[in-house]
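User: Structure please.
Assistant: Input sequence and predicted structure:
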Amino acid sequence: MHGLILAGGRGSRLAADGVETPKALALVAGRPQLLNLVETFTELGCESITCMVREGIRVAVPPPARLWSCRTPSSLHTLVAGLAAMPPGPVLCAMVDTVMPPADWRRLYLGITARLDAGAAAALAVTPFVDDELPLYVTRDAQGFATAILDTPPPAGTSVLVTGGVYGFNPVARRLASVAVASLHRMRAFLRLLLEVKAPVATVEVPRIIDVDHKRDLEAADRWLAAGAGSREPGAGAPQ
């Protein structure tokens, strides 16, 4: 499994809250979040780690991570640029603003690996903890495969799950992304395309994910991790 970290965004919502540090370098648990994710991916056993960061950001990353500069209009474009820069094979991809405790990262990594090994084209991290400005809802069947990806909550009686900014992609999904980016401009549109072309998209559930978009999310992440990830502060994430 190869690791891909997407940090091509401007972090405009953090900046509006007075956080001048770029999102990739925002401090979570006292360290730049990009370095937190590099360490996490290394401990998970990723063969390589490709970090796509917005042009102008300078930070040293330890091997096996490599830093690539980009100026892309969306996370989907950053994804495709990152996939083109990294070795072939299955990919564990995360938005740089995704925060979880180590045990949940391990659960997610093992679950995504198992799903891709079993033939899924993609695997999505999902969580029942919903607190995001633009949540992306997912419905799934009894086998855990996504059946719909929605901008609005599913009908009453359906389990409420949202995406969490972490994805697994096999080579088929990687090729589809490189083609889809010519006409699609958002990650959520690409995820829907996978379902439309009948590619098997699995889900792996974790209790909670914090998506660091605002200063309050940074504060919530610090409290959550400091408390052993046992508290319930705002912030599940969704792709933009």
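The helical segments are 12-16, 33-44, 75-85, 102-117, 171-180, 187-196, 215-226.
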